[in-house]
Design goal:
binds zinc ion, 3-stranded antiparallel beta sheet, Trna Endonuclease, Chain: A, domain 1, 16 strands, 16 helices, alpha+beta
Amino acid sequence: MALTDRNVTIDARAYATPVHTPEIVEVIDLVSGEVQQTKAFIEAHRYGELVEARVGMREALKNERPRHICAICATPVYLVANMHKRFFFRHKTEDGSCPAKTRGELTEEEIRARKYHGLRESEAHKRIKQLIERSLRADPAFETEAIVQERRWASTRDPKAWRKPDVQAISAEGRFAFEAQLSTTFLDVVVSRRMFYRDESAHLIWVLAHFSERYRRMTTDDLLFSNNSNVFVVDDETVRISEETRHFHLRCHYRVPLCDAGIITDEWREEIVPLRAVKKELDRQRAYYFDFETEEGKSFEILKQNLRDEVAAYWAQNMTRNAEGDPKHLDRWLAIKERLAVHDVAVPDYPARDGSFRNMMHAVLSGLKGHAVGWQFDTLVQCAHQIAERHPENLLAFGFAIQVGGHEALLESQDLTGKWKRRREVMRAQLRQRARKYVPSTACMPALLFLFPEVGARVSAFVQRNGLSVEPANDIADI
Ligand SMILES: [Zn+2]
């Protein structure tokens, strides 16, 4: 194989790609106990997530708690990337006893290790250590005499273990190890340092000489994606700012999730920030300025809520008596169906024609809003009777929707003849006997849980608590 310097940079959110014909076709996940097809496993992950996962996998391997083993020989395996950033599993050790030979293909790490052997004490490395030291010395928060380069750091727990961080320092925040990331700082080194400094309860800050989101090596990605999508650079400008402000500053490059037209995309940003504004997590050995993970979680919530709102709006506009099932709206519904499928929620192609699903949607929306949605009824109590007569499987959802919407008193006030009250007593007695007709539809449950999380959670808790559909229930006074 030719040792070229062509680097492939993969978008963090793109799906990861396996090698064409992996030697190890199947692995066993020791946590779930399942056999996994390695190609399918790799393809199911987005690139950034997979890189983060492989750091965790490698750590588990070092702790002798491997997550995956070869399905043929049961040797622990780990995930590696070849020079095109295509992934495959490799045996931890290969003695020839397994027909799968995983050590033929060179990884980017191995190519670079061969090529740049001896690069560690390069001028670039010396320079970055100097820049880190100058930044620290400019900042009175760090004890002057404790700022040292290349000094042995002995483990406080294991007298035989030690590391030699590029630069170390102490402040009121604790002990710090600063490591320059070089093109030959490979995953094994990254992982063992993470573990060492975590055991020392010390902060480990990786520092790069430069970063470009469009040209990233595997070694940079390993740091980036295991560090909440933040990386730090120290350069002439940051040193000047550190010296001017007398606070250690770093240039932080970070990934920002953006919600756009129903999907999440990323934007890379950079900012020069003081080290004291960097959040440090000892347990996960992460140091970041922008909390990508939390923000991405919020973005997913926003997307989900947008989708819920879209479904409710569609329903209010299309499920009236005149417009119900109007074919011209079906494209809009099919687009919604596709977006719901991403969340593992299946809904019918023709929502108006599916009696149980249509009734559930009518029932929950009416219960939440306090007036008929989808039906032409004037009152909520008419909706209640309709559900009880036609679709008792949706009665629990309706009852909890009334609770969540706070419309119990309204429903009662509309029950002028007391007919609903009497009916409710009968139904409660039937529920105590676990009458099967009140068991919610299994097919509709995922949609209920996703579209109306509060109502769905109450319904499923009730069903579980009362073993509904199994034996007589006795906990139904709250319906
Ligand atoms: Zn094997």
